[in-house]
Every structure is written in C-alpha cells, then in structure tokens.
C-alpha cells in the first residue's frame, strides 16, 4: 500500500473513469438498437477467448442509475462513456432512433444531477454492421456517415456534454480490426489496412465540424500511445524503433496537428484527396491520451512482413494481461508528446489508464486489489511529474469503472474499480475504489469521507 501523501493537482483538474458502450451496456436487442460489427464478431465461433458476447455484459442499460450512484460515491468530476452508434442509427444511416437517444439523454441528466460531467465518446469500435457490409472504414463514405451520426447526437446532447471525444483509439481499431483480425470486423489486411486510418481521421475531422456547428465543445480525440523502448543497439534496431513510433504514435497525431502523414505511410492521392489533410487538422481543444505500457521494439527477423519486431520490456511487474506496469512510461510519453509537437500540442487529458488483475471476493465478501492501488498511485505520480516537466495535463480517467467485457478476452480480464459478479450483476467496490475516492478528495483539498 502506498504510504506517501497523495500529490496535489491544479484546481479544476478533471478526475474521471471511462467505459464503453458494448463493453458494459448489454440490451443489444432493445429499443430498436441495430447490430454492430462486435455483435457479429462475438457471435462468430472462436473469436473470443471464453466464447462470451456482450449481449448482457454488465447490464448497464438497465442498471445505469446504480452505476451513476457508484460514480457519485467515488467523487469523480467526470464520466467518460461511449454512445453506441447502432442505437442511434440502427442501419448506420438515416434519421435518429428516438429511443436510442433517450437512453443517453437520461444518462446525461442523471450524471449532471449527481455532479458528474458527462464526457461522450462517439465511436468506441461498434460500427453498425450494414456499414461494414458496405466496406466499413475501408470505404470513404463511412467518414461522411460518421459525421452525420455525430450531428444527430450533438443535436440532442450538445447542450449538456462537457467534453466530446470523436474516436477511441483509431490505431487499435485499424490494426487489430482490419490489420490482424483479432478484433471486429476481423479482417487481415496488414498494411493494406492504411485507408482505415485515413477514413477514421477524415471522419474525425468532419465530426469536429459537425460538433462545432451544434455545440460549444470542447472537442477531443482519444488516441492510444506507447513510448518506444529500442531493444538492441544496432542501426537496424533503431530504424525498427522509428518505424514503430511512426506507425503507433505518429500516424494518428502528425496529421491531426497539421504535419500530414509520416513518411512511408499514407500517400496515395486516390485515398488522401485534396483538402482532406486540412479537414483532419481542424483544431481540437484536448488531446485524449490512452496509456497502458511502453513497447519494446527491435529489428525484425529476415523475411518478416513487418519492419519491426515487438518484444516485452523487462524489469517491471506485470498485470493479469501480462502488460508491464510502467508509470515512468507515462511521464516519458507525455514528455515525448510535448517534445515532438511543441506548441502545436493541445492540452492533454489521460482518457484511459488502468490494469487487469484476477480480482475476486475474499471470505469476507470484500475485493482486495492492492496491485491496482499501487498502479494508480504510480501513474498519478507520473502525471504530477509530467506537470512539473511542463506538460499541460488537465485530467486523468481510470479504465474502468466496472469489470466489463474485454473484447477478444471476453470476461477473463477484470479492469474495474468495482467488481461485477456476472451471474448476479452484483457490484462490489474494490479496495481501489475506496483508495481512489479518498485520494481524489485529498487532492481536491476536501476532507476524506
Ligand atoms: C483500450 O485499449 C480500449 O480503449 C478499451 O476498450 C479496453 O477495454 C482497454 O484498453 C483495456 O484493454 O502486449 O504489452 O505490448 C487498449 C489498447 C493495445 C493497450 C495493446 C495495450 C498491448 C500491450 N491496448 N497493448 S503489450
């Protein structure tokens, strides 16, 4: 257990937790919701580790009041959720389904009544299946469709959402969804998936314009980043590190911040058309940073289809996902962003940070997760150090409020501050929930409850 007093953060620093629609909502056939690529994928044999689906997940669709009460008890100032596109437009196009909007309308009102700022992500990977059937993010049309959907959500929620996030982790969606096939829609195009990067970014830029027309903002995107640790000291190792950095950290940031695509990535003028880069570089108010761990990179073996080889970084404890617990990587990453983009870097919020452990109730019914407390303590101190380094960090969101449906890992990985018994849907706050509640109170200069 950490014993040092919690670091202090600037007044107005945003304290939040994050979730996403398909991972928690369930109720996949209710109130006119359409099918998404994740429904299709999860229901295809062999795609998900435990054969589970998000059909019920945490049943949040029916239990959102209880979940908002958990947020209020935690004392967070913000809650990042995602809007399920197939609830709003079951076929991905056309007029809004009012019942779909009603759900988020109620959620937003409940959050505001609880003193929690709603932070809405428009797209956390759940593309309406009919749009995938028309080419998915390989099709340029999908970018236009996304902006039309953004407009419908903004028209209904624009007066109350406190931060808009267009896309979640477009790199992961491209690489795992369309590159390697580990995620929906399960395509295996490797580098032929690059148009998915461009069309997501174009969709982001068009959605920013739609949000600006309807709302006062602020507007962000949530990218995942990983500081690159070059393993080995040959020129080939360093070149591999640079290639991975361009692909993972710069492909979705250089064009957003006005630099165009990194060399050797996207150049085809039939994909990247005149004017697109200006649309993509529309100013954003916040850069959302999802951070999990650093990545070890070395030169690829002869004949590899990739220009790098990934390897675990050693010397850190590991989570149940086997990811290294490396808070120093967060400080390093924030310094890299500031050093690379300088004054073009907007204020940053850490929109996801978290860890999976094999948490389960003990004989006393409580769930003790000291590893998660150590994880959060370390990462908060890393954010404090980055502030001292001069990086403008405005918020920190823990992934996640609840144990939930972890994509290709199904229910086998528990990221929550709150334990969920999926048989009964009972929510049990873990010891990390109490620790974070007290830490937030202390850093906000309020007495611990
Ligand atoms: C996020 O993605 C998602 O936004 C969220 O929905 C998800 O539930 C959450 O994180 C937890 O997974 O093998 O050591 O190199 C995270 C993206 C990509 C981060 C893979 C870690 C590999 C670590 N992740 N990456 S390692």
TrEMBL record:
Signal peptide (UniProt feature, chain positions): none
InterPro entries referenced in this protein's UniProt entry, alphabetically: GH (IPR017853), GH_1_N_CS (IPR033132), Glyco_hydro_1 (IPR001360), Glyco_hydro_1_beta-glucosidase (IPR017736)
EC assignment: 3.2.1.21
One Pfam assignment: Glyco_hydro_1
PROSITE patterns in UniProt: GLYCOSYL_HYDROL_F1_2 (PS00653)
NCBIfam families: BGL
Name the record gives this protein: Beta-glucosidase
Naturally occurring in which organism (per UniProt): Micromonospora globbae
């Amino acid at each position: 257990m950490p014993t040092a007093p919690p670091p202090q953060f600037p007044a107005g620093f945003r304290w939040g937790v994050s979730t996403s629609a398909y991972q928690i909502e369930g109720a996949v056939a209710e109130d006119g919701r359409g099918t998404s690529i994740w429904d299709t994928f999860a229901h295809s044999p062999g795609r998900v580790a435990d054969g589970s689906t998000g059909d019920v997940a945490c049943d949040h669709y029916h239990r959102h009041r209880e979940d908002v009460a958990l947020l209020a008890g935690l004392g967070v100032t913000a809650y990042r959720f995602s809007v399920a596109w197939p609830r709003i437009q079951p076929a991905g196009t056309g007029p809004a389904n009012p019942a779909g909007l009603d759900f988020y309308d109620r959620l937003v009102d409940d959050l505001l009544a609880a003193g929690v700022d709603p932070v809405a992500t428009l797209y956390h990977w759940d593309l309406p299946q009919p749009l995938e059937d028309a080419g998915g993010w390989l099709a340029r049309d999908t970018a236009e469709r996304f902006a039309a959907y953004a407009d419908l959500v903004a028209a209904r929620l624009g007066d109350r959402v406190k931060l808009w996030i267009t896309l979640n982790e477009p790199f992961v969606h491209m690489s795992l969804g369309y590159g390697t096939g580990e995620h929906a829609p399960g395509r295996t195009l490797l580098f032929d998936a690059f148009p998915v990067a461009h069309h997501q970014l174009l969709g982001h830029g068009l959605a920013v314009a739609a949000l600006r027309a309807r709302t006062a903002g602020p507007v962000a995107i949530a990218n995942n980043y990983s500081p690159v640790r070059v393993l080995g000291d040959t020129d080939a190792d360093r070149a591999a590190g640079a290639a991975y950095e361009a692909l993972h950290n710069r492909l979705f940031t250089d064009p957003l911040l006005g630099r165009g695509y990194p060399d050797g990535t996207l150049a085809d003028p039939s994909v990247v058309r005149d004017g697109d880069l200006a649309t993509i570089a529309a100013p954003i108010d916040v850069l959302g940073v999802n951070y999990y761990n650093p990545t070890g990179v070395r030169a690829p073996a002869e004949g590899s289809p990739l220009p790098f080889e990934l390897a675990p970084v050693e010397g850190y404890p590991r989570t149940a996902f086997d990811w290294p617990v490396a808070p120093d990587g967060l400080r390093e990453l924030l310094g890299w962003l500031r050093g690379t983009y300088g004054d073009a870097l907007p204020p940053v919020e850490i929109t996801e940070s978290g860890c999976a452990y094999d948490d389960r109730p003990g004989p006393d019914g409580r769930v003790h997760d000291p590893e998660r407390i150590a994880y959060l303590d370390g990462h908060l101190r890393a954010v404090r150090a980055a502030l001292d380094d001069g990086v403008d960090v405005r918020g920190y969101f823990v992934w996640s409020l609840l144990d939930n449906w972890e994509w290709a890992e199904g229910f086998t990985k528990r990221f929550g501050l709150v334990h969920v018994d999926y048989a009964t849907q009972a929510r049990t706050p873990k010891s990390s929930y109490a620790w974070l509640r007290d830490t937030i109170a202390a850093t906000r200069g309020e007495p611990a409850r």
